Amino acid sequence: MAQVMIKAYYITPFCYCVLVVIRDVIEGCLKYKRHLSTTSNSQTPNSTVAKTKELSKDTRNKIVDLHQAVKTESAIGKQLGVKKSTVGPIIRKWKTYKTTDNLPRSGAPRKISPRGVKIITRTVSKNPRTTRGDLVNDLQRAGTKVTKATISNTLRRQGLKSCSARRVPLLKPVHVRARLKFAREHLDDPEEDWENVIWSDETKIELFGKNSTCRVWRRKNAELHPKNTIPTVKHGGGNIMLWGCFSAKGPGRLIRVKERMNGAMYHEILSKNLLPSARALKMKRGWVFQHDNDPKHTARAMNEWLRKKHFKVLEWPSQSPDLNPIENLWRELKISVAQRQPQNITALEEICMEEWTKLPATVCKNLVATYRKR
């Protein structure tokens, strides 16, 4: 019995030490497992291993030079402070491609094959109103599953971008011929001739209408905050009609048309404002007046008055507001007025007059200088 007790006395400490070692090993393994789990959870699905710092072009060239000087990879690494595992690939790439530059990386293959790109490009070229959904369905029927975003990115690489279709006047064949005739007659006119033209037109500006687009910086779910909205009412909340003119030297007079425009009123506007505008703009002798072919402008009485006053009138093709550079000035005016947010018709008129006089002469000059590009 005594011998058994003695043996137990000596064996027990040994077993205890073994158990302690096993416990420490198990705890270490569990800690390492938890560390791996935490690291993998902290990385997003799209996360990638950070790219190591790339050697400079000069360092890579030195590696090649030392290799040509019959130095080993280890010696090159020690001399330049670069790992041997980095030196080897640079030397092998130089032997294969005779360059130390970065080679093109292939990256992930395109979802749409070159043939598919040609198909969708040809489709939208034939029918620009084709939707992205239509193209997605076409490719899906051909065995290629893509998203609308992929369609947009692919077409953008081909130089095609989704834009709002421009609204333009409906042109009949007679209008097309008249526009072509106008372009041919004035194609070679020098810039000085266009600088001696007074351009005119009428426009309507609404109090709360869509005079211009307005972009705001806002946070999510703040689209209805008063600072981020544009108040609208039915029919624009009232509007004013304006007549104005300008030349390459700056804006001329701007007049509010308070009653319904007719031939008599148009005659009154020109008789009171055209010649004073020409004098204020210091137009050269023989200046030319431009207005469109609105019936009020081309009435017999109006033409007779212009002839008696010896005003030269620019022959104008119908349905051609895009040829009149004053349309650009109207847009600038409407943007400036909208930014000041007038609250009634009186304020709207006052702001229009103020902003018209602020239009820079350089803007007017540039509009006329680039007229031949229209």
From TrEMBL:
Pfam families: DDE_3, HTH_SB, HTH_Tnp_Tc3_2. GO terms for molecular function: DNA binding. One of its GO terms (biological process) is DNA transposition. Residues 120-188 form the Transposase Tc1-like domain. Residues 50-100 form the Sleeping Beauty transposase HTH domain. Residues 197-348 form the Tc1-like transposase DDE domain. It comes from the Eukaryota. InterPro entries: Homeodomain-like_sf, HTH_SB, RNaseH_sf, Tc1-like_DDE_dom, Transpos_IS630-like, Transposase_5, Transposase_Tc1-like, WH-like_DNA-bd_sf. NCBIfam families: transpos_IS630. This is Transposase.
